[in-house]
Amino acid sequence: MPNDKRISPLVDQKEFNFIQEQIIPKKSWKNVLGCVVKTIMLAILFGVVSSIAICVTYPYIKDVFQEEEEGRLTNFMRQMNTLRLASVIPDCKVEMVEETQPIIMERITDLTVEDYKKIYEELDTITDEVNRSIVSVAGIIKSVDWLQNPYETADVTSGIIIHETEDKKTLSILVRYSKIKEVNKIRVTFDVDNVVEAKLFDYDSKLDLAIIKVDESLLSEKIKHTFKVATLGESIGLSAGEPVIAVGNPNGYPLSREYGMITGKTTSAYITDNRVDLFNTDISNNNDGDGAIVNLKGEIIGIITHIHSFKSELNANINTALSITRIKPIIDALVKGRNRTYLGIIGTDLTTEIAASLGVDNGVYVNEVETESPALEAGLQTGDVILKIDDSTIISMAQLNTIISTYQPKDELTIVVKRTTSKGEEEKKELTFHVQLHKKKN
Is-contact 256 249, C-beta < 8 A? Predict the structure, then answer.
């Protein structure tokens, strides 16, 4: 209706459109490739930036996470160990403590009176076996009373069966020399039916040790199958706290026994031409007692001594024993009646400080030169430092004793000393002496 006057004048000026469409042209492959390249470049840029950031911050992040992880791992392992211990040892009580402290494990055992009795029964079993080597020895002294009636007194001690000859004819028994040195007879009691006489064979008065011999033909067959030769152990590695048993007559009564422990080693005892080692126990000392100290294997590790006991105002009753290792060669020589050599000095080992003050690197210091000794005859003096014997450098009295024990009486050896009592130029000189050894005095 072109003539209809109701139509807007706008229609006359411009054609009216209900829908307007815009056609977008398709992208070409070049545009797509450009987008891909841009994406790749951005990804590379992002990776480079991220890598730099991680490299810079990694050490700090690692420390934080590592400490946390190690803490978790430590706690985890600690808990696992606790579970394992609890499963393997049900009676074991485990306490969790700080990392700087050790894990404390306690095994709780309730001991009854019966348990204590069993412990002492075991100790008694060991002692009974050792007592097969122990005999009672009496030194008999004959005398007369004021009416001239003869009588006998006996000084009783203990003896240790130390050796039996291969033909089983003679027993050697180790005793305390001071108990038998001035007696008329020596009687040895194996049991009430076997009391026999013995003879003094050899002795060492410096150690208060002696060997007496018994003829086995005087013993009954029962006793021959009952006694045993004692086993000598080692005492070098002893330490405080080790349990020990005293056998013989440690409290003054024959075949008595005492239980205790080693409390420590004392200083060595220096005797003529030798040094012996000592150790102490907490067993009460008895002036009338003697015997041996044995370990829980039943081995003799010490001989109770009184002449070398360590005494002071604080511990006058301390029990002291000769360490068996150092006196084994002496006991062997006494049993065999072997001649022992004699030099005749009493010396001491040098400490590093004393050696430096005397201007020597080694040696033993001579404290005393005995009268009528080979050392005195050769010209040695108190204050000399023995440096060498023949080709052997001397470092201790124990070594000196070992060396001279390889010689026989009347053998001659060369001793080099430094005379510390000399003055002036003589003080710097080493002196050489030729000494002829004697047979050792008992």
Answer: yes
pLDDT band (50, 70, 90) for residue 93: very low
Q: Which of 438, 374, 369 shows the shortest CA–CA distance to 407?
A: 438
Give the Cα separation of 56 and 398 in Å (integer): 71
Residues 256/158, Cβ–Cβ less than 8 Å: no
Residue/partner pairs of 359-367 with CB below 8 Å, 24 or more apart = 359/418, 359/428, 360/385, 360/387, 360/418, 362/387, 362/393, 362/394, 362/395, 363/387, 363/394, 363/395, 363/417, 363/418, 364/394, 364/395, 364/396, 364/397, 364/400, 366/417, 367/270
Where b means 16+ CB within 10 Å and e means fewer, 397-415 reads bbbbbebbbebeeeeebeb
Mean pLDDT of 282-302: 92
Say which residue the tokens 């992880």 belong to.
Answer: 69
pLDDT score at 128: 95
The per-residue pLDDT for range 393-437, each reduced to its tens digit, is 999 999 999 999 999 999 999 999 999 887 655 555 789 999 999
- Reduce the DSSP state of residue 373 to 3 states and report it: coil
- Could you report how far apart the first and last alpha carbons of the chain are, in Å? 167
Q: Is the pLDDT of residue 347 over 70?
A: yes
36-66 CB burial, b ≥16 within 10 A, e <16: eeeeeeeeeeeeeeeeeeeeeeeeeeeeeee
DSSP characters over 293-352: EE-TTS-EEEEE-STT----SS-TT-EEEEEHHHHHHHHHHHHHT---EE--EEEEEPPH
Q: Is the pLDDT of residue 163 over 90?
A: yes
- β-pair type (209-215, 194-204): antiparallel
Give one DSSP letter per residue of 28-69, joined into a string: PHHHHHHHHHHHHHHHHHHHHHHHHHHHHHHHHHHHHHHHHH
Convert the pLDDT of each residue in 171-193 to its tens digit: 999 999 999 998 999 999 999 89
